[in-house]
Amino acid sequence: TLSPFPAEAGHEGAHNMIQSRDVGNFTFEHPLVGKFTAAPKDLAGPVVIRLNRESDVNVFCMFALTLPQRSIDHPDNRKFGEGFVLVLNSEEFLKRIGVAVRLANLRGEARMVEYFDEEKYSGPVGSFLKSSRFKHQSEFRIVVSPGVRDFRELVVGSLEDITTPVLPLAEIDQHVDFSEEKARESGLDA
User: Fold this and answer.
1) What share of the chain is helix, strand, coil (3-state, %, to 5)?
2) pLDDT (tens digit per residue) in 11-32
3) Is residue 99 pLDDT above 90, yes or no?
4) What distance lies between CA 77 and its chain's CA centroid?
């Protein structure tokens, strides 16, 4: 199930974020309110611009292990649920998602999220940039458009042949060894 960007997601789905130090005088004019101008020093934080085309998407988020590490259990990650599933063949998984997206006449994109320092960064944000305070999530996203307000379901078919059963998230480090030693043993040198 692909979710829309939640309103409380901070800078999620924003088009641009501009630090106040990078803004000249900011002027807003509206027929009911009149004209208002603020200097950069008057702004309480960055100017975040949201456009409908950026937030009109549905997003499926996954944790992606990109480097060997001793533990992947993190207290903040437990907020996402009580279980996990490993995708054992990521190439086939993405192929099946791509077929489902095309059959539904949608557009899709899948890749790793990049993280930025929200105290310093000015520039485009979009669907694949996120505050560095979430870097521990090591997030891989599948973004589908146009989006729908509620959840969007894609018919992918069974994934049993390329995934594990649902396992308890609290036991992830007991079920899976992503250490450097195991990576070397498997021929996946870091």
Assistant:
1) 30, 30, 45
2) 666 778 888 888 788 787 888 8
3) yes
4) 13
